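Dear Dr. H.,

I hope your travels went smoothly. While you were away I took the liberty of generating a structure for the chain from your last submission, since the lab meeting agenda had it listed for discussion. I wanted you to have the full record in hand beforehand rather than looking at slides cold. The sequence, exactly as received, is reproduced here:
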Amino acid sequence: MKNIKDILLIILSVVIIILMLFGWVKYNQMQKKLYDEINNGNKVILSMDKTTKESDGQYAKLVNYFNTEKDLNNQLKEQNEDLFRLIKKQDERLLMINNTIVTLEGKVTEGFGSVNKNDTNRIDLKLNYPDEKNSFITWNGFVNRKTAFYKGEFTFGKLPLQIVMTETDRGIWKSRLIGPEWLIVDSMDINSLPLPTPEKQSKWGLLLGGGFQKSFNQNIPNALSLAFAVQYKKHTLMVDGNTNKQVGLKYLYRLENFKNK
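The corresponding predicted structure, in token form, is as follows:
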């Protein structure tokens, strides 16, 4: 009768281990399937995305991060072979290519020049874009009202640009280009490698180990043991057995994680 109980206990332990393994494999399969479905959905969204004007001078475009290093290298080699060779020579890794076309907002201005005191045929002009207060382009010169000859110098101010990268709730990256209100972004095309992200730890884990058991009972010999456990978050279910033909089922709960200082 005792042997039958032992056999049943062993069978039960084996069944529990098999069920745990099956659940772990099934969980990983579901996780992979869900990840693939999200990626496929993101690829569709990226294919339909266009450069979006969010406000004057602010434009947004989703980043196509489904590229390999070969994809980016081929693109750069086709567009800018000199830069491609420089990056290769300096043993750098290409991470992203941002192709953006911008124009300046057209403006109609009017006003008066001033007659030069030394030459009344000469009209001095100073033109500012977009305006005198926030001038980015300045033309300072004169026009001869008899011959229509003109001469002047273009000077350029600073063009402040800001690029902001964010991640949407679907895990898609979005790039924003922010500049002055008169800056128009005609198109943005951003290709990159997937950025390295910290590997997320699974809530599930498998443990396998063994040990030596010292018996303080003269009638029971020392034993070697083998243990198998399934861990879920803070919970651990363990099945172990030893050379004394003993099988055990244990439950462990992790009370606290110690943090590195």
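Two observations you may find useful: The chain has a mean pLDDT of 86. The CA atoms of residues 160 and 179 lie 6 Å apart.

With kind regards,
E. W.
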